Fold each of these.
Amino acid sequence: MTDQIPRLLRKAEVCNRTGLSERAISDRLAAGSFPKPVFIDARNPAWVESEVLAWIQQRIADRDNDVVPPGRAALIEARRLGGRKAQANRRMKLSAA
């Protein structure tokens, strides 16, 4: 029996496959909502390909099940209310009254 060695993806490839920027990946790592990397040396992270693919598949499944990602609900609500500027204007009008 031969076990397959997991394929590791460098950050550029992870960005390419997910469509996320390096900053977005870092933010999701900090929030615990993205697969953790393995370090192939002191400064170079890499991700297990199957974990990244599973993350992508989960995003697709969430979309198909109408699951709103964390943070997206707040963004949708802010847009519904007219965005940040409109909210700031409303607060100023309320405090001036």
Amino acid sequence: MTSAALERLHRQRPSRRRDSRDAAPQSGRCGTDAGPRLLREHRPRPLHGRPLHRAGLPSVAVTTNSSRDERDQALRDLRERKINAVFTVDLFNEGVDVPEIDTVLFLRPTDSATVFLQQFGRGLRLADDKPCLTVLDFVGHQYKQFRFDRRYRALTGASRTGIAREIEHGFPTLPAGCVIDVDRDVRRLVLENVRQALNLNWRDLAHELRDLGDVDLPTFLRETGLDVEDLYRDRQGWASLRHAAGFGAAPGDKALGRAFGRMLHIDDVERLTFLTELLAGRVPESPRELRLMAMLDVMLWGGTGPVSEMAARFARLTGARAAELRELAGVLRSGLRHVAPPLDAVVPLHVHARHSKNEVLAAFGVDKPVHKREGVRYVQAHQADLFFATIDKSEGRYSPTTLYLNRAISEELFLWESQSMLRSSTPTARRYVTGDSTVHLYVRRSKREGPRGREGLGAPPFTYAGPVQYVSHEGERLIRFVWRLKHALPPEVFHEQLSISVDRVGGQSR
């Protein structure tokens, strides 16, 4: 691939209006996914008169009517540089091995992430004298319905809501050596497209489901490229969408549908397995199982009722809503990406798993946890101090007396600032220092994530950093403690905190 080839193509570009038929690859070996207008030919004949041929880059088209010998010959000619490009539609998505391909052109739209990655992958093989793969995409701006979010999510693994941040900041989380280069004007167009895709209309979703038929939740998400959060963000969930599409009766209990949206952070196998078994009729017996049930109870019904009545509340979970929750548990389990070790035999918490504050309190046996709003809590029955630390704070969401400084010093050390009323001489402070209790640390980036990060899904959950041990402290009022974590912070959590500037200026954290 040479700049001279690009310059030659530019000089010879026709003066008529550009469209996808005028797109030309660089010199080198090029695999091209083209549109049907380009491939009316039924044999792998040279594309005489086309822009590539006029620019001195011989190429051929291969179609479904081409014989096996003709297809193989086209690939041999590409390897041997007798031709510079092969144009095709869907023939070479998989089962083709030409490591020398150094350029891939996209000339027609596909919203399938699987097909896109298969086509993209034709150029990812390593070869001598091939420093990189160049991908030229001529689709999005010409095809207004094209979904850039699906394409960039397939490349980066980002969520639908996270991909806008990736594009806006230049894809900072790509592996070393990988670059997605989007210039300023193109970035603006792509962001407009992505943000438009985030503004999903409930009626349109119901129409998509109706077109697909009476499919299950995993199939719907896979075929539409949606995240499960899209069905619950300020919405009533999967059962309600099925009803809107004409499949099944109205599920009733709209509050439960919204409550399911507040459960989407659950990311440990034990809770998801217990939920599935509970829906299948399992009766909790052990203290740990009763705590697991209490954790689910606070998520479903808000933690306002006593634990003694939670069995009666679960008895109301039947029909369409029970079926929905069963499917939802399966979707969440299929998306697990890490192993979360358990804390102990009684408290059903898992290190590095995510929990709401009410879930944590319920796991430690606190009844009606919704009424406990403090960022610290001592549970005497377990001799446990629970710290809930929010890293990114702003004056608009916190009073000056609650702008505590919390941040990770390293993956093993954490700086935590006490409440303003605490003095180093108090029994509570002495308990922290002497280790008469076990301190458990829970951290999250912010109280509200946005834009649209968890909008309509409740407050962001905390990541359980695990038990911590006292290292040192300083100060008399607003005591700053340094704690050592027994389990190092996950790299993604630590690096996220590094990205937040936390400076103490005039009593504010920013």
